[in-house]
Amino acid sequence: MIEQLNQSLFLLMNATPESPEWLIKFAIFIAKDLINIVPLLIAILWLWGQRRQMTAQRVVVIKTALAIIVSVSLSWIIGHAFPHDRPFVSGFGYNFLHHAPDDSFPSDHGTVIFTFALAFLFWHRVWSGVVLFAIACAIAWSRVYLGVHWPLDMLGGLLVGLCSCLLAQMVWNLLGESIYARLHQAYRFCFALPIRKGWVRD
Mind listing the UniProt keywords for this protein, alphabetically (predicted)? Predict the structure, then answer.
């Protein structure tokens, strides 16, 4: 029943040879490049901002990084414990994006971007979380549209992201102060020159 629903949703979303070429190219851009917002925003929040907000921003960065580490680990475990072929491996639908024929559930891209969006929703600002969640949904759509994932792969990524944020918060409650102190000390050592020059925040 679930597999039939998965396949039906996929066929509703999957592009075909008759789909507009511009839409396929746009979907490829979303699927391949939009995920780069993750390291970009993490770097910006850690390195720059108003002085009185830097500690709060870096706490968000660390908690988000913890959640992503947990989510990627869970995704790897689930993928190996419950292997599931990608649509094009099963000869289902149409594929418009080159991808290795590895396990599809849960989606790695979906896991990372949904974890990132949920982290900002929980720990940063509601508006930033909503914007990132919209971006996550766009990435999820694009990868199904292009034929490299099933819809439930993306739902799996969302659920893994939710669990990972919860686990990251638990780790932070136990070890947060120690983690922050050590990372900040390492940052000040590695970025001593840029900090001294005023290029980045202390």
Answer: Hydrolase, Membrane, Transmembrane, Transmembrane helix
Residues 154 and 41: their CA atoms lie apart, in Å, by: 22
Please give the C-alpha separations between residue 13 and each of 32, 35, 100, 109, 145, in angstroms, as whole numbers.
18, 20, 21, 18, 5
Model confidence over 10-42: pLDDT tens digits? 988 999 999 999 999 999 999 999 999 999 999
Q: What is the pTM of this model?
A: 0.92
- Please answer whether residues 77 and 108 qualify as being in contact, where contact means their C-beta atoms are separated by less than 8 angstroms: no
pLDDT tens profile 76-93:
999 988 888 888 888 888
Residue 128 neighbours by CB distance under 10 Å: 15
Q: How far apart are CA 71 and CA 113, in angstroms?
A: 10
93: left (phi over 0), alpha (psi -120 to 50) or beta: left
Q: Quick one: which of 174, 180, 164 has its CA closest to 67?
A: 164
Amino acid 118 reads L
